[in-house]
Every structure is written in structure tokens, then in C-alpha cells.
Amino acid sequence: MPAKESGAACKNKRPCGSFICGGIFMFWDSTAGRALVLIAALAALALTGLGLRGRLRARNGAPAGKRGIFSVKVLTYSAICIALSLVLSRFKLFQMPQGGDVTPCSMLFITLTGYWFGPEVGILAGVSEGLLRFVISSTGSVGPLQILLDFPLAFGALGAAGFFRNMPYIRFRRSKAGPAKASAAVSSGLFTGYVAGALALFCVSFVSGFVYWASYAPQGENPVLYSAVYNLAYVLPEVAITCALLAVPQFRAAIERIKKQSIG
After folding, report:
1. Would 40 be classed as within a structural domain?
2. Structural domain of residue 103, as residue ranges?
3. Which of 139, 148, 195, 221 would you label with 154, given CA atoms 20 to 30 Å apart?
4. What is the CATH classification number for the domain harbouring 155?
């Protein structure tokens, strides 16, 4: 739940020194502060990638000496998904007052990287997308921990969809009297993974909401309840829109083709 105004967390808190506190907020909202966060996070991503060396090719039985971090195909598809997610995030169907938007399926493409290539790729793609969102966003921030929760951790949580990529397919007939070849298969992992990723994003945003933005709750209202309702107000509509899109057979078929290519 990124705030619209800097310094919101100082509201109703113990005095921290207006000059020091204001200087910290101004730094994190400055170009230099955002650049520092991006550089530090990219360094952390690089170290994480090195720690995951060989995991993807080992899964497919590649020789130990030929195992890389990620293949060109994985990097290309991930970059395209991050770009699509960023572009779609600029089209806001509805915007909450303290941050959080209903967009046309911008969360879907990060969950797809996890569904296609596994949770490691999905989480790293989500963290990268969250960092880019922070750098290009105009929203205020109150410090590095809030930035971590609202951007890389929240969007990285979408990659949890990858843990459900191997769930079984559900087969059914398109017509009661049709032949066997008229049967169709729907991946339960596709829907389950997307919903799980969106739920994980909600949980991180929910924690950020009642820790950092409790002062925005109406007087007398429980800040925990306020954060839950606030974040559900934009997560649920986007989940409903995306699930409706995933219900289109042709769209699902395109997703499954890319997944088969990633395995092959």
C-alpha cells in the first residue's frame, strides 16, 4: 500500500526530529535514493542468481559442467513479461487513494514466468518488476523497509505461482455426445498458481498496510481490518478480471504452448 505523500509514517508517532526525519524521506524519494535502492537490489538479485546456478538445467538433466544460471529463452520471456506487466500497470481501471490499483491483468504476466519456468524465475522476475515500479513511480515512501515490502517483496510474491506449475490437468468433454477427441484439458496449476500468487501479494501488502499506513484508518477503526479491506478492494477485482481472461480456451492454449516449449 504505497502512500501518496511522503512522511505519512511520522503522523501520530513519537518525535524523531523534523529535520532528520524529513531529510530521510526526501532522500528515499529523490532520484539518488531510488537509484541507490535499485543498485543495491540488483546486486542482491545477482547474488541470488549465482546461488541458483544450475538449478533449472539440473532439473532437465543437463551435465554439471554445462549448467548456467538461466537460458536465453528464460531471460527473453521473463523480460517480455516484466515489460508487459509494467505497461499494463499504467492503465489504471481504478486507483485507491493511498496507492494500489486495479489494472487489466498486470499481475498475470509475473505469475506466468513462475508457471512456465518455476518459482525461482517467477520470484526473481517479480522482484525485478517491483524494483522497476518503484523507480518509475511517483508515490512517496517512508524508508527502505516500507519500500522492500511494497515493491520487491510484494511483486516477488507473485512468483509463488511457480510452486503450482506441476499440478495435474483436469480433463473434460466439450459436449456430452461428442467423441473422445473432443475432450479438453485445463491445468489446475494455472488458476491455482495465479490465485496463490495474488494471495501472497495481498499478504505482503496487508502487513505493510497496518505497519506503515495505520494512520490513514478512520478514527476508531481497527487498523488491521482497515488494511485487509483496503488491499482486498483492489486485489479482488483484478483477480476476477484475470480469471475471466484465463477462462478463454484460446488464451489458455497459448499459455500452455509456451510452457511445453520451456520444458522441451
Report:
1. no
2. 73-263
3. 221
4. 1.10.1760.20
3-state secondary structure of 187: strand
Q: State the residue for C-alpha cell 499478504.
A: 203
Model confidence, pTM: 0.75
Element (H, E) at 171: strand 169-173
Q: Is 30 exposed, middle or buried (0-12, 13-18, 19+ CB in 10 A)?
A: exposed
Are 103 and 114 contacting, i.e. CB atoms less than 8 angstroms apart? no
Q: Give the Cα separation of 232 and 85 in Å (integer).
A: 20
Is the residue at 7 inside a domain?
Answer: no
Predicted confidence (pLDDT) per residue in 191-231, tens digit: 999 999 999 999 999 999 888 887 888 888 899 999 999 99
Residues of the chain with pLDDT below 50 are: 3-21, 56, 64-69, 178-183
How far from 178 is each of 71, 85, 170, 194, 248, CA to CA, in Å?
Answer: 42, 39, 17, 31, 20
Q: Hunting for cell 504452448 — which residue is that?
A: 257
Count of structural domains within the chain: 1
